[in-house]
Amino acid sequence: MEMTMTLRSEIEKGIAEMGMNFSEFGEWSGINRGIFSAILNSNPPKPISLNQLERIAKALGHEEGWMFERYIDECFYDGRPNRRRVEPFLIRCAELGRVGCIETVLSRLLEDLRHLETIFEIAEALYADGKIAQSVVFYQCIVQNEKYHQSERLAISHYRLFWAALGDNSEQNLRAAIEFEPFCDKLPDDKRLDGLMRLVNIYVSLDKREEIERYSRELYSFSQIVYRNEEQRSKSSAGYIPLKTRYPLVVYYGYGLMAMQEVNVHRNEFAAAKTYIEAYEDLSWFVGLDEAGRREVEKFAFYARANRLNLELLLGNQEILEECAAFVEQYPNELLQFASSVLKSANKYKYSADFVFERFAGEIEKYLSRTFTKDKAIISFNCYCDICYQSSLYFLERKEYAKMFGFVLKGMETVVRINNKSMFIKLAALFERYRDFASAEQQQQYKKILGGISEHEENDG
What we know:
By secondary structure, the chain is mostly helical.
């Protein structure tokens, strides 16, 4: 009880320094006089609640988190964890970034692994409140201590950590995806749908063809199964409650079709890709659509229109270039995908794409200054890197080396930022192969980029 008595001694010392007696301080702090007396004078003393500690700290003029290290024993006042004190204390520690206090409390809780459920519930409460970064330490605790590999709690913790880890660093995203993969099929249906969709997104951004196909097929298949199950439940149960998913169910169904379309595009199986576009361009028949679902159906109709144009570009149809340009001017969010497809097409079929640089080069740079959601950031920056690579090939074909190296270097600066090693290798190989045509300034910039990478790797090490 030494720590507990020290906490009370500090309180008594602070009150004395303010020149107050217990009764006056109780009124000053807003704590009932009888409760305050029991906290300080009873034998044994009454445990202090977190709310009371924070009121006392404020009344004494201390910063938030005052005496938190010494408050830990209050959470285990009789040698056992008291949930009414442990939970709010851990949540408050998370909010204030008091990681040391959290680790100490978790260590004591884990003396009995039955408390993993409490730790998990705290993590879920923080996550639901939007405090994703603060929840990570608790999910990590579950992952490190859960003994049952098939546990849904363990799968959900991996899913939350996967989502929390995603950002604009490609290698970090890849590591997060690999760690999450073995647990995706152990998730509840709603989270499994979301996990599969995010895995597809990550592997699309990394251009991992085998993984793209695997998870696209799984999302396509599983979304159909969930839809059929929901359709059957809605018909057979008067009290039917729809499956609650992050997005309307039609999103996962339609996204599964879009993912399979992309698989076929990668294989140059364009006729098969068109059949998937036809399948999601009108999903108005989807059972159980609410207002949000109907808005998503409209989005898929739009995606179908955009993807038909992209498909025609990849087939080398130059007659639609002006239509594509007008489409992008009307819908600027499609700019990166449009530019990438035009350049790939122009490089393959050997036609001029100068209008992309004349009309949209500045808009592409402005587009990347936006604030994106996690998923959009991953895709957008990787698409921009591909645009730089395709632009480099385009100007190499025309022997416009200054422009070629300009795009190589722009691309390299961006891939360093997002840590996309495979694209970096492609761009660096292009520079090295034609370095004799680079200006002194471009060679110096290239050297500086390489130096920055070496320094970054040393710091990481």
